[in-house]
Design a protein that fits this description.
Helix content is 54%, strand content 0%. It has 270 residues and is mainly alpha-helical. It has a domain at 8-155: Hypothetical protein, domain 2 (Endonuclease III, domain 1, Orthogonal Bundle), CATH 1.10.340.
Length: 270
């Protein structure tokens, strides 16, 4: 029996119902695997009956999304996952007559099996290989070349994925492997420069040349001399006068004062 959810009832359903196992694989994304693989049993409980491919395929999408979103939600992103599970069921109805195990029954090779799984909604290249490895390692579905098609997840004596989990000890080893790979990927991403970032920085940096000392010369601000035009100063024009003469029409200052004194004295005698 599969041991993926941590719940015996949910694991029993995964081991006996191909649709439940496929739904669990779809949900195994961005959530702990126990949460993902317990989802099919909880969905069956909310429906009140066994999981049926044709029923789920024809359900009102909003009703199905409500079943996924009811607390506790079946996934971190219940709405999108409800749509993905419905797309999966519709594909099984269209391509395999509604029989989930028709995906692997009668396949002639591991390559054919991988190709069938890879075309299912919610299954990318990596998840398809993991599922083929799970079928081969734990459920006895072993067409020719299944290990090669699912490598490295189909390789023997490894602890890479859900295909290798059989008990609590193997679960811990798979988790440790995933954490190690996550740390390596994070370190590699940190060491890799962002594409285009260096190029943009170089374009923005002005071209500079090294001087004789090997140092970048610092350009000093050049003071600009602004020529200020001075307004011309008008010089008072002076007219040379001969001694005792004033310009035309005016008496010399001394004679004028003497005349005023005489006028004042005669006025006083009157």
């Amino acid at each position: 029996m599969l041991r993926l959810s941590g719940d015996p009832e949910a694991d029993r359903l995964l081991s006996t119902d191909p649709l439940a196992l496929l739904i669990g694989m779809v949900l195994d994304q961005q959530v702990p695997l126990e949460w993902a693989f317990a989802g099919p049993a909880e969905l069956r409980r909310r429906l009140g009956r066994d999981l049926d491919t044709k029923e789920i395929a024809s359900m009102d999408p909003e009703v199905l999304a409500g079943l996924f979103s009811a607390k506790p939600a079946l996934h971190r992103y219940p709405g999108s996952m409800a749509g993905r599970v419905q797309d999966l069921c519709r594909t099984i109805v269209a391509d395999y007559g509604g029989k989930p195990d028709g995906i692997w029954e009668g396949v002639g090779s591991g390559t054919e099996l991988l190709d069938r799984v890879r075309r299912l909604p919610g299954f990318g290249e990596q998840k398809a290989k993991i599922f083929v490895a799970l079928l081969g390692k734990q459920l006895g579905v072993r067409p020719d070349g299944w290990r090669e098609s699912s490598s490295p997840y189909g390789d023997p004596d490894t602890f890479r994925s859900v295909a290798d989990i059989t008990d609590a000890g193997s679960l811990d080893r798979v988790r440790a492997f995933k954490q190690e790979m996550k740390a390596k990927n994070k370190a590699a991403a940190a060491a890799t420069p962002v594409a285009g970032k260096t190029t943009r920085a170089r374009k923005q940096e002005p071209a500079r040349q090294l001087g004789a000392t090997g140092k970048v010369p610092v350009k000093k601000a050049q003071a600009k001399t602004v020529a200020v035009k001075k307004a011309p100063v008008k010089k008072a024009s002076t007219t040379k006068l001969s001694r005792g003469k004033t310009p035309a029409g005016k008496e010399p200052a001394g004679k004028a004062r003497a005349a005023r004194k005489r006028a004042t004295a005669s006025a006083g005698q009157r």
